[in-house]
Design a protein that fits this description.
heterodimer; A: mainly alpha; elongated; B: 212 residues; mainly alpha; 68% helix
Chain lengths: 165, 212
Amino acid sequence: MGPVPNKPVERTPVVLPHWTAPVLAFVAFGGLVGWRMGASALSSGAGVVAGAAFAFGGTYLLIQALTLAHPGLARAAVLEAAATGLLLLLPFAILALAAEILLGWKASQVFSAAGLMTACGAVGVEVGRRGGGKLRSMLVPSAIAFALSAAWVLLSTFAAANWKW
Amino acid sequence: MASTATVETGTSALEGSAGEGPARTRIDQLKAGLLIFVNPGGALKGALREIPIPLALGASGTAFGLFFLQTGLDLLRVGQPTLPRLAMTGNGGVVGLCLLGVLYGTAGVAVLGAIAWVATRPLGATLALEATVRAFALGYCPALVYALFGIVMNVAFGWNTALAFGVTGVLWALGPMIATLREMLGGQTWPSVILATLLGGLTLFGWAYLGT
């Protein structure tokens, strides 16, 4: 398939870099998991660092996969789509913090998994709006979101169960 | 989507389209209901906008009814009062909680849509109240799917599913909610995200207050 012409999209510009929202969200998710590992500053700090690393890695993976799947689409357009779509992680992170702190729920994984699927889906929609292939822009982010949410749930469950700081 | 060069304002895209062409079939609407998982904005602008409001609120009402029912069954299983705020226990409490869920998913979601409609007016939204409520109610289609799976697992295997399936389903509704708000606000992302966080929190913590 030849190069896909990038479409102009009218919207409010998202001024934050593409990695900001996922890093903020996973700092929160990681901090909550870390708190469960030992309810100390050290365990929460470890969770925060792990969450930030996971977010950077996951965002990089998503952008690489989308760039590879859409060779004709400018990388700037993919980054812009990621910056807009990944903002949707923030409500999930805020609600997870509120649920854990105010209500004592221990369910941050439910929030992170739903947030990842929703936000990556939104990135796909944004890529589609910018001229990405209709099917690929839906399937690629969904597959990445599924893999990332499974990885995060496994990692955080293992950490919370086995590492007590 | 291929012919759309810009983000549609949604003011007309989410409105009903009586007289716009042949009526969509139920199968198209069912497909669109499932499409809401991956492309909520597109689904809400497509076949779903033909659905009458009572049916849309029926979907959200059923979703919340089943969600609250799972909550009641979970509480019954662990021996806690099933409807503590009305001092109802046992099977009667479970039925009461389920009915409360239906009310929450119909009247509550309609109120939620109305709050969103009022809150977006100063930000330039012009979508009709009816279309806003319809879009908000249909946003709970993913929650309905989760609730159906959850109730099967709850009854068949005796699992506690309210948190795993019910809350997950309600969280999935945040995607369509943000998509709806973005369409209403002409593509403004930040106000949509902030409003969806507040409205999503209201829904979720409302359930926590009433049901547990």
